[in-house]
Amino acid sequence: MISRAVVLAPILLAQAVRVRRTTPRLPGAAGPVTGLVAGEGEPVRLAVLGESTVDGVGAATHAEALTGRLADELARDGGAVAWQAIGKTGANARVAREELLPLLEPADLVVIALGVNDTIELHSAARYRRDLLDLVVGVRRRVGPVPVVLAGVPPMGRFPSLPRPLRDVLGARSAVLDAAAARLALLPGVVHVPMPAAMLDPATFAEDRFHPGPEGYRRWAEQLADVSRRLLSGTISRQKR
């Protein structure tokens, strides 16, 4: 049986070209890629590694993007948080391992946010899982057995900039890759946090209607913060033993 994607290939290609031509090209966040949220005690060292969302596209500064927002959430209990944003627009999981991993500084918690570019490039679930596993292993080799949070692949079926049927095809593909990433949560100290489709309110997107705006990053950070706190406290690690 011929798959729906194959039948629709000419339409999908035309839509993809049109989206690429008409979508505004927003820059990454300005300012330092490291920072400190002041608080009591020795700072928790947070590193966030990934694609354009970690590069801060859609926000003016990293303080308003995913890494800074997550650091703010983790500091709500009064502790200090030192953060590092290691992002590259257009990076897939393999590029992240080869080009971004060497930039990773010592950390107590690493958050990985990838999958949109692997989805757009139509990578298989097996490849994505393998590349993501290689990245997690590389993180542990570089900074030790730190807890790792795998942010879920955003459900691209909710991206306002994508027309149908392209939106439906990429939405289905992003779900497949997210399921592949979730299997890595079997590793000790690794947690996968899926992004609920309901979180993607069109009003929270940036001007390009493809990346989060500051409000979208805030909501995403809130979602990741609870799991991150439990990992740092050891609660999840103890449950896995």
From TrEMBL:
Q: Which InterPro entries match?
A: SGNH_hydro, SGNH_hydro_sf
Species per Swiss-Prot/TrEMBL record: Amycolatopsis roodepoortensis
Q: Which residues form the SGNH hydrolase-type esterase domain?
A: 48-219
Pfam families in the record: Lipase_GDSL_2 (PF13472)
Lineage of producing organism: Bacteria, Bacillati, Actinomycetota, Actinomycetes, Pseudonocardiales
Q: Which protein are we looking at? A: Lysophospholipase L1-like esterase
